[in-house]
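Supplementary Methods. Inverse-folding protocol.

Structures were first reduced to a discrete structure-token string of length 276. This string, shown here, constituted the complete conditioning input.
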């Protein structure tokens, strides 16, 4: 089992907006260009986690270990079922329109730019791909550290699509919410075009149990309660110790005490962003 039970389960139709599936590696071999090699993390194990914490909808995010080969992500969506699953793919500008349409039909709703782990879409294709996926209603998903977010925030605000930002924007908790990096995130949220994934522990400066990110989460939620979503980031690759989903949900409930706001973040907002 990947987690203990939370003190309270997530409400009905809650969505885990950020997790990965790895393997089985004999069917879905990893990219030779990857920067890390994780153990397998398969659909049945994820479903155990989802059942334990109360997740009923799920968004599979293509991980960097697979580059632009989205087969494992598409297979996972198929196993979960389109009635409850969507995905975020990694593509390149060379992908033809028919391929993009097929990905849409298979449940893809966004394109991830991983500016931390690499092995994916080149950063210089950001504007071109945003224009190409805009007619599909997709968004751009950005994984970057706080310094990079500060650098590219003006560009992101001008894209013709909405932008979903991973891991609380990568701004380390020790910098404080008044730091220019964090203020850049707030300006993006104020633009009305950005969404924030308040999966928070990777923004921790202190490490386990990752409670130092509380102020960041509270500030982001206060800034845009209608455009925050939550995720487990299962299986917590390259983290030792790895957090448990039950703990992460407990922290979310503690840091977002308003039940109506939690309902937005766990249920209503992801339904809008991913088209449930």
């Amino acid at each position: 089992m990947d987690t203990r039970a939370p003190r309270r389960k997530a409400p009905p139709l809650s969505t885990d907006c950020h997790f990965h599936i790895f393997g089985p590696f004999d069917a879905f071999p990893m990219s030779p260009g990857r920067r890390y090699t994780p153990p397998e993390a398969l659909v049945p194990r994820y479903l155990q986690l989802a059942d334990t914490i109360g997740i009923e909808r799920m968004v599979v995010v293509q991980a960097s270990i697979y580059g632009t080969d989205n087969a494992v992500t598409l297979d996972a969506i198929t196993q979960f079922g389109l009635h409850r699953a969507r995905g975020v793919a990694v593509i390149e500008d060379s992908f033809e329109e028919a391929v993009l349409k097929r990905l849409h039909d298979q449940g893809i709703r966004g394109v991830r730019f991983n500016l931390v782990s690499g092995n994916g879409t080149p950063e210089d294709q950001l504007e071109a791909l945003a224009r190409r996926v805009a007619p599909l209603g997709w968004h751009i998903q950005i994984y970057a550290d706080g310094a990079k977010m500060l650098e590219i925030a003006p560009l992101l605000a001008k894209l013709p699509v909405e932008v979903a930002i991973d891991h609380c924007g990568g701004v380390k908790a020790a910098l404080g919410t008044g730091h220019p990096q964090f203020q850049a995130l707030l300006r993006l949220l104020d633009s009305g075009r950005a969404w924030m994934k308040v999966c928070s522990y990777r923004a921790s400066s202190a490490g386990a149990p990752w409670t130092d990110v509380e102020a960041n989460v509270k500030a982001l939620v206060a800034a845009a309660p209608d455009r925050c979503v939550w995720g487990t980031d299962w299986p917590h690759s390259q983290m030792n110790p790895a957090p448990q989903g039950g703990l992460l949900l407990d922290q979310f409930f503690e840091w977002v005490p308003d039940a109506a706001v939690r309902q937005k973040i766990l249920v209503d907002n992801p339904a809008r962003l991913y088209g449930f």
